[in-house]
Prior knowledge:
Blueprint: E1 5-9, H1 15-31, H2 42-45, E2 50-57, E3 60-69, E4 75-82, H3 91-105, E5 110-116, H4 120-128, E6 132-134, E7 146-152
Parallel strand pairs: 4-5
Antiparallel strand pairs: 1-2, 2-3, 3-4, 5-7, 6-7
Amino acid sequence: MQTDLRIIQESPRQAGVIRLLEQSSAYAASLYPAESNHMLPLDELEQQNVSFFVARAGDAILGCAALVGQDDGTGEIKRMFVDEAARGLKLGKLLLARLEEEALRRQIDILRLETGIYQPEAIGLYRKAGYLEIPPFGGYTADPLSLFMEKRLETLTSPASS
């Protein structure tokens, strides 16, 4: 399955993606009360400041993630989710790398995110990728069920001549 895996920028408004977003929302609702869920609705994922990516194997939609450009020049990771049937394929790592690549393309050098404390796999993924804990940012307020993280991206430069 992994040989034909692709991560493509696409519209979130398609049946397979909507199904995945519904799974993501149901999963978050099973872990956290409504006031601790900060999901972007479908119409906000279609805004001009959002780059939305879909992970596919053939025609099957296996995961998704969004990069939301913020007014302060930073970016926020939203709606990153991998279908349960596709877990173990390292899709989270691949989606995260694609978001970071897109952030740099858009000249965003700081990526931030909010995740829940009951999602150790997600927290581990972000920590392993270099994300560090920070205080609440943007419109978020302190929440004992939320963890806020950021990573300063480094632009790729050619090695210095010796």
